[in-house]
Amino acid sequence: MNGKEFIKAVDLIVKEKGIEKDIVFEAMELALATAYKKNFNSLTNSKILIDRNTGDIKVYSYKTVVPDEMENDDSDDEEKEEFNPNYHITLTEARKINKALNVGDTIDTEVTPKDFGRVAASTAKQVIVQKIREAERNSIMEEYGDKQDELLVGTVALEDVDNYFIDLGRSNGILPKKECIPSEKIEMGKQIKVYVSKVENTGKGLFILLSRCHYGFLKRLFELEIPEINDGSVLVYSVARDAGSRSKVAVYSEYSNVDPIGACIGEKRSRITRIIDELSGEKIDLVKYDKDPAVFIANALAPAKNLHVIITDPKKQEAIVVVDDDNFSLAIGKKGQNAKLASKLTHYKIDIKNTEQAREMGINFKN
Fold first, then answer.
1. How many domains does the chain have?
2. Residues 293 and 319: beta-carbon distance below 8 Å
3. 238 pLDDT more than 90
4. How far is 44 from 85, CA to CA, in rounded Å?
5. CB of 147 closer than 8 Å to CB of 196
6. CB 296 within 8 A of CB 290
7. 3-state DSSP call for residue 120?
8. pLDDT tens, residue by residue, 21-71
9. CA separation for the pair 353, 358 (Å, rounded)
10. Dihedral sign, Cα of residue 116, residue 117, residue 118, residue 121
11. Phi/psi at 308 (nearest 5 deg)?
């Protein structure tokens, strides 16, 4: 690789990979300095200079100008730098070469070996490849680094015992099988929507962890499918999810003329149906959020009705809910699912009692 070829190579990666030209030259000079010392057993200080226009590479040996007394200083002071003729030249000797030199200046002597081009070519290729990799890693980090908690679309590329590997375009994400919806079937080559639960720069590359079970996945689907959520006229307060089985989504609107539940359902249930289909049939309860926690808790425990909610400790967010016998099992749900989801949705610890249990606690309601 001659000078012109090197300049062309640098210009190419600057244009295609977005690497600053000076970064490439500086990395090349540093790498060549190391290569020179290694290949030519240099005992002096040396530096490499690359002409930014022609690509010509020259090696210089240099000595630093030091005070005359440093040469004859025999003191035992460990902090003082010792005079070394390979690295230093006294001020008197330096001024024999150039009267304008002062302490701290350097005297450079070109020592470019005749066959240094071979070493330079090999090193240049290594540096350029390294910088391309670094640039691609940085570019990918910039593209995906802020994608945590976002919804992406990728292609199922590979599978092992525990994971699916999803091609996201310029990077791959890992979708653990335990983060897939239990009832769904993942097919190779199929495009799927995934939620980015974690993005981490490991140093070796980008680690992107994906999920389809995360409650955030459902929230992002609502934002994607419901225009009113996307434009802010309907807001999602919270989401509680038992992936593959049932979820509850609390929504509300600050506009009196907007029906948040109806907006999410859509005409002929078209919007909510698309979301349910994406979740492989997972049931979704739409709950109207209310600033009054008692009302919100009652709404969250649907389909149970005729509920009496008592907020026992607002600070600890604890409540007792009294339910008649006809609605008791509905409020709790199969294996306690309805109560658990309602608790997650409202962020309240909910203690459900039937009328007999409430009476024993001294709680009475008149129907």
1. 4
2. yes
3. yes
4. 9
5. yes
6. yes
7. helix
8. 888 888 888 888 888 888 877 777 888 888 888 888 888 888 999 998 887
9. 6
10. positive
11. -115, 115
